[in-house]
Design a protein that fits this description.
single chain; DNA-binding; globular; alpha/beta; eight-stranded mixed β-sheet
Amino acid sequence: MFSLDLSTELNSRQIEVVKSTEGPLLVLAGAGSGKTKSIIYRVAWLLKQQKVAPWNILVVTFTNKAARELQDRLEKLLGYSVRSLWVGTFHSLCLRILRFESRHLAFNSNFSIYDDDDQKSVLKKIYKAHGFDIKKVPLQKVMAYLGKNKNKLLLPEDLDSMDSDVAASGEFMKSFKEIYRLYQQQLLLNQALDFDDILLFTAKLLQSNDEVRSKYQSMFRYIMIDEYQDTNYAQFQIIFQLANQHRNICVVGDDDQAIYSWRGASIRNILEFERDYNEVKTVRLEQNYRSTMSILDLANAVIAKNYRRHNKLLWSELGRGEAPELLSFEDETQEARCVAEKVFGMWKSGAKLNNIAILYRTNAQSRNLEYAFMQQKIPYVIVGSLYFYQRMEIKDILAYLKVIANPDDNESMLRIINEPPRGIGQTTINKLIAHAGKYRCSLFNCLTYIEQISEINSGGKRKVAEFAQLMASFKSLADKANVLEVVKSIIEELKWIEHYRNSKDQKDISRAENLIEFVTATSEFSERFLRENERLPLLQDYLPHIALQTDLDKVQDDQDTARLMTIHNAKGLEFDTIFIVGVEDELLPHRMSMDAQDGVEEERRLFYVGITRAKLKLCLSYVKFRRLYDTFYYPKPSVFIQELDPRLFLDGKEDPMLQMAPRTRPKTNKVILESEKHYRIGQRVFHDEYGYGKILNVDGVGAAATLTISFEKGTLTKIIGSFIRTDNEA
DNA sequence: CTCCAGATTATTTTT
DNA sequence: TAATCTGGAG
């Protein structure tokens, strides 16, 4: 008889997490404190000891990868597979609910899912059709606001009754509301949801429909949420609704690792869990099983400077270890070269490259590193830079699949109607769009009676008819055949591989390879689906799965290559050796986040996340000279370092840079000296006549510099530095 | 449709 | 600075 041996595997706090199954439980789990392990044992305990049925348990993770890993480790522990357990991301959970409950919605169950690119292209069409000015209503800002509002569960009609957002001026808000309304209308017409809608409509459905709510409430007797610090309001509401009957909700997280507030995540959720749910039991996991004490001392010292946090102190029994190193370099090139040399040295003395990671704040920083690694001939991979499913050719074939499953999806239809080129030109397409708009039908629908559309000339008609026939044949295949057959058939019929292979462009060659990889991925899905469900995987089974996949995260783990990535991407990972480069003011903390206290605190958490990835060795570095676009400047070491006791670092000797002695340097063209520099790109400034604005470019030095400034009232102009004021002067 | 030149824009991005 | 996007011309 299987029994769970908790005491040999877990510490007393972790056991408390496992056994406190009834009522709300808040687990404050520091970095590396074995929280995933605790969750896994908790699920196993519920299943084995409490005899809870697997379908009564819901575990929500933040990434597909984490979900898969959790499921795998659980099955390993139990020794058998538990299929009916609900393990997944918020989006996958919500997608399942929405598809199943579609009769309560304005969408049919085959709705498409739009990613950011699709979203952008829908918005652009709205701009064009309704004459919105991209200068006055920036697309970026609109997209950010769309997300913000949806994450707060605010639909266009909710905005009217509210006072407009303080940060946005009246005119922007007026246009935004209109665009938001039109955008939702467009999505409905296309039978599509964007990522935020998936959460939004699930939350709304659970709030408004008693029948649906109580069905899921009674189903989910035990709920566990990982990475609770990164949940947003919509996710909070979903969980709040689901947990309201049994109230056996366990949230696990670390407020110190909240680094996604700019995506709508609210640190409030974890800070105020105790207020949201009464009679909460709180368990702190502070013992770290990852890093040596000298690394944890640094981590503790860094994060202690934050105000808005639950107090925690990490400790481990792994010994003091080597003290973190703090290095300074002349410039980025030297920094990159030295990091590469160090990595090379470790590699030669037997270290595994896949135990080494180099972390940076912005993607742009990877270039120097890549170059240095290439020079040293060190194998490396950049983690998470290019997303497989975001590639052009992959999005193309996905668009085919989407249209076949959901004929109302005009957005995808427009993407493929002439891809690969089949002689259906813009003129014909415009006529089709006009016709579809006039008769309120989908483009797909128009294709089927193309002969009756008099505006289109006979050549166009013939081409369109051919295309319509092709799509019809795909559709009938998709109704009954394995999705793998559908994918293969599309690629073959369109002669896609040949099309790319015949091209002289190197990019097209790799596109052909990507298509083949897509077939492989489909085939893997098909096999697994057959095994688990004992029936043929249809297109409808594949699309929801694939829509939520971001990366084809396989290969990498086993290859012995050094890892380069942003600090954000390093979250949840661990390495023997960590380098963090560019630990400078205006880079970490990033200049764009330095205006607000909250922004700086989040940057500090980001730094903390980076530090706590290291198991044995940590090396931080900054440079004295850096280039930003066409401007040169002398950065200071990050405040996050300056505010620390230097003895936390190797040698502990005072770096001259850290004492901030005034430096004298030869004047070079375009170089802005620290002592003279008053203005930086992105800085917020004030002008008596124009009001507040943001510096777009700095030409020259000090008060005499010519500044290009975009003022919030809409003026864009060049001004001599002495005519404006900065916040520091105010 | 395709190509080129000028314009534009540059933080992070679990889904 | 440099990469990507856009629109107009051919």
